[in-house]
Design a protein that fits this description.
homodimer; alpha+beta; Aminopeptidase; Alpha-Beta Plaits; 2 domains; four-stranded antiparallel sheet; 14 helices
Chain lengths: 463, 463
């Protein structure tokens, strides 16, 4: 018993792969001001593709930053309205020398597509579009009303989005958000996401002198910006990774026995995982398991550091400036603005008096998110994922951040379920990012089933 | 009573300044492999200038690294032989944006010459050459036998020089080394150098994973190379700057009351100095004065640090690699190879077990040096400096390193006195390096007097 859209998707596998590769070739790096035109070009490419798929209204909407692509087809009154969310921007590709093939020249090897954005998330952007096109190919109407909202700033923390959503509540009104940024795991170990961590970040600048100094001439007399910075950073975590900033853990929900059981139920192969990322051993609070730390405990990481001489050979300088970027992943019920202020206070408290310290909040603060576990949208998602997998999915909390989930909840009153082609450990934010073609094709089908199931689900008016 | 050479120097002030500016335009940055040709060009320029000044033999000698320029005029048997030492390489000029005028386009402003190498030490290279030319202009022979040895690797720690000197003992044999790398202070507060600190350095590389990781996907599970590095570096010094590496101070000569008195006798204006380098306060071991720490105590400084994302905006990465360069200034009787091994042992001892640490010694290890305080060469220098200053010089120990002094002592049995145009605090190794024209002209005269005085000094056979 093959659904009519099933045949359509099979016929178009080659076409859809070629379109995916074309989309990947656009270097839409949102953090790099020089690539702003490419981010917009990626949005325009998506808009054209949405129009071609049968959307009634497609628009590029300005945000003050990178634009939003909006589309809709609202032809089934009385049926739920689903808002698909995605992003068409990508992380920077550096360090370039570690890529086997160039990040913006997608390469298909061993059933995988390698490129920056392959996993996060240009493939997943296309799947709900292909699904709508396939459903419409049967001649019938879509089973639900659909809206699409794709942004171009997710990888820089969606700075324009809170205001954009608040200012477009009517346009975006919906019964459920369908987030395509994420995945449902491999076919033999499916999983649906029920939570995400939040985020806050800071940049620290330490200044110790008016100029770089000669370590002979001034050595023994002058403070050193790098020494002061490493002192501040080392004070933030103990040797096993516990965060020492006072109050950092105050609002963290203690893990219940049920939480621990659900986290432990998620398939995880410690040795294979360690090998895959090349670490000697797991690292972090020893009173929690690695999986608990990854999804239900907050973290603090230095993402970058620089100061003084980085060239070849020796330069006997006492550097006047040193810099670091840090970000924290947050869990319920931490709030980014509260954690940020505690971090700033701590930094100034431990900073040596001999230097000046300037702390700047980074964009992209986001609340942590947990989906109510009895939500009918979640049950519909689980049905769709089961249909394209070898067994029913487990429920997992994710370690990453999708800032918009908290914003959709606050502004639109809508909960968010997640469906996409990413299967994790695919080099997102790192060299040699890839996505598996099997998932790219399989999840197109899951989207069709999900739209059909939601058409029969009493969601209207929950919002 | 004006010496005949005095008139000659006065007549040539403009010529000599123009030649100095021409020499400064050669970007002879020895640490940058791309500038190797410029380093050689600077050496060739000097060789031509030595020939023009009347040297009988001038040669460019290969070392395996940057070349050495050798010259000699040995026409007064029975008189002392003086070996002039200098270097024609310079420090890198970055950060370029902090220069008021470009580093290799010398600018004369307010009686100063601004350029990379102005103070350290292209001006001082020329002064003994000009002095010989002026002395010969009278028609008489030079009062001493002179040899010149200028190297092109001082700013990278003179890696080729120990072997070069050991292999050219006969060529370089002398009764006294006259080091032009340094200065004798301003006219109203002259000072002669009687000691230098030694040097050793290391580069540290920390590796925590096989690839950069997503701080959402792997956060809470994986070690972070930057956190490990800042832990290692912060463990090296306490909060007031004492070095915590076991055994670091074991061989340091305790300061006697006389040492302290001599150091305190050197003119020093704490507030003006702090303002000139833009520091809030002095920093370092509180049981010593800033001047004691600068010349008679060893130091450990991080010269550069880098790892992870350094671009604009946010990148939520757990970096797999982090790097730092550190150097130590050493004092009698510390030995660089001993201190280096203690540092390496300490680094591996404090490094978290979750990461791999690789430590590489940097080139340029050098012994500390102290001149015997009754040496006739020192007395001759003091006479020459007194003649061009408003009062007799004080004796000072320098905080910097001139690796060759220890090598000359070991290989040639010759002690070293120092005379040059640098007056300190002139931005050596930093942006906006400069030298004062007053010293450039005044010290030409000091060289003439020193050569004349050494001609009457019983130095022969001391070596």
């Amino acid at each position: 018993m093959t659904a009519p859209w099933e045949a359509y998707l099979s016929e178009h596998e080659t076409d859809y792969l070629e379109q995916f590769l074309e989309f990947l070739r656009i270097p839409s790096v949102s953090t790099d001001p020089a690539q702003a035109g490419e981010v917009r070009r990626a949005g325009e490419w998506l808009a054209a593709r949405l129009r071609q798929a049968g959307m009634d209204r497609v628009e590029i909407l300005e945000t003050g930053g990178h634009p939003v692509v909006y589309a809709e087809r609202l032809r089934v009154p009385g049926k739920p309205t689903v808002l698909v969310y995605g992003h068409f921007d990508v992380q920077p590709a550096d360090p370039l020398e570690l890529w086997t093939s160039p990040p913006f020249e997608p390469a298909v090897r061993d059933g995988r597509v390698y490129a920056r954005g392959a996993s996060d998330m240009k493939g997943s952007d296309l799947l709900p579009i292909f699904a709508c096109e396939a459903l419409l190919s049967t001649g019938a109407e879509l089973p639900v009303n659909v809206k699409f909202m794709y942004e171009g700033e997710e990888e820089i923390g969606s700075p324009s989005l809170p205001r954009f959503i608040a200012e477009h509540k009517d346009l975006l009104a919906c019964d459920l958000v369908l987030c395509a940024d994420g995945g449902v795991g491999p076919k033999d170990a499916p999983a649906v996401n029920v939570g995400r961590r939040g985020l806050c970040g800071l940049e620290i600048q330490v200044t110790s002198a008016g100029t770089d100094l000669h370590s002979g001439g001034a050595g023994g007399m002058a403070p050193n910006a790098i020494h002061a910075l490493v002192h501040i950073l080392d004070a933030m975590r103990d040797e096993v990774g516990r965060i020492l900033v006072p109050g950092f853990y105050d609002e963290v929900r203690p893990l219940t026995e049920q939480d621990k059981a659900e986290i432990a139920a998620v398939p995880f192969h410690p040795d294979a995982y360690k090998r895959s990322i090349g670490i000697k051993d797991f690292f972090g609070e020893p009173e929690f398991t690695p999986q608990e730390r990854n999804v239900a405990r907050p973290t603090l990481e230095v993402n970058g550091i620089w100061g003084g001489y980085q060239g070849a050979g020796v330069k006997t300088v006492i550097p006047r400036e040193a810099h670091a970027k840090i970000t924290c992943r947050l869990v319920p019920d931490q709030r980014p603005e509260v954690i940020r202020e505690r971090l700033i206070q701590f930094i100034h408290q431990v900073a040596p008096g001999s230097v000046e310290v300037r702390v700047t909040p980074l964009p992209g603060e986001a609340d942590p998110y947990l989906l109510p576990l009895d939500h009918p949208g979640l049950l519909a998602l689980e049905k769709a994922v089961t249909a394209v997998s070898e067994r029913p999915p487990v429920r997992v909390r994710g370690g990453g951040t999708v800032p918009v989930t908290g914003i959709f909840q606050r502004e639109l009153g809508a909960e968010t379920v997640t469906l996409g082609a990413s299967a994790g450990q695919e080099g997102a934010h790192a060299p040699n990012e890839f996505v598996r073609l099997e998932n790219f094709y399989r999840i197109q089908r899951a989207f069709c089933i999900l739209f059909e199931t939601l058409g029969e689900t009493p969601l209207c008016g929950r919002a």
